[in-house]
Amino acid sequence: MSGTRRKILVVAGLIVQDGLILIGQRKNADRHPLKWEFPGGKVEPGENPRDALARELREELGIEAVVGPEIIRYEHHYPKRFPILLMFHRVDRYVGEPVPGEFQQIRWERPENLPSYDFLDGDVDFVRRLARGQIRL
């Protein structure tokens, strides 16, 4: 990592239904096993974030999502890795029924209950703020 430090762009969807948010648990064999996260993934070269999120939701959950507005973005630094720029978008509409696909399991949860889950380090502060109502959906 010499010279300019590049950022890895990651998009995540806040899929909201009846006041609940969809979260997924990583599989045991994945990096950061059994940690919880919001569905999404890396933005590929030449891809815009909304298209990347729609693709990731199709791959991970088997849904065709209408990606809504960006809610928040921030950087997170994992040790010995490039910094990650996380971008969260709201998703209110989609076609299909979400299935775990790439996850060990998925759950619909109330925002105030999210801090009780073992989330990825990059999501922890965001989850706390969401649970306190500091981030508007």
Describe the structure.
With 137 residues, this protein is of the alpha+beta class. It has one domain: Nucleoside Triphosphate Pyrophosphohydrolase, CATH 3.90.79.10. It is built from 2 helices and 7 strands. 30% of the residues are buried.
Instruction: Return the string of H and E elements.
Output: EEEEHEEEH
Shape: globular
How big is the Rg?
14 Å
How far do the termini sit from each other? 36 Å
Kindly provide the name of the CATH class. Alpha Beta
Please state the second-level CATH architecture: Alpha-Beta Complex
Content of β-strand? 35-45%
Main sheet summary: 7 strands, mixed
Structural class: alpha+beta
Number of helices: 2
> How confident is the prediction overall: mean pLDDT?
93
Write the CATH fold name: Nucleoside Triphosphate Pyrophosphohydrolase
How many domain regions?
1
Low-confidence stretches: none
Q: How many β-strand stretches?
A: 7
Q: In percent, how helical is the residue content?
A: 10-25%
Give the full name of the CATH homologous superfamily. Nucleoside Triphosphate Pyrophosphohydrolase
Task: Write a short abstract of this structure.
It contains two helices and seven strands. The chain has 137 residues and is an alpha+beta fold. It has one domain: Nucleoside Triphosphate Pyrophosphohydrolase (Alpha-Beta Complex).
Keywords:
137 residues; alpha+beta; seven-stranded mixed β-sheet; globular
Helix and strand layout, with pairings?
Layout: E1 8-17, E2 20-25, E3 36-37, E4 40-42, H1 49-61, E5 64-76, E6 84-95, E7 105-109, H2 121-131
Parallel strand pairs: 1-6
Antiparallel strand pairs: 1-2, 1-4, 2-3, 2-7, 5-6
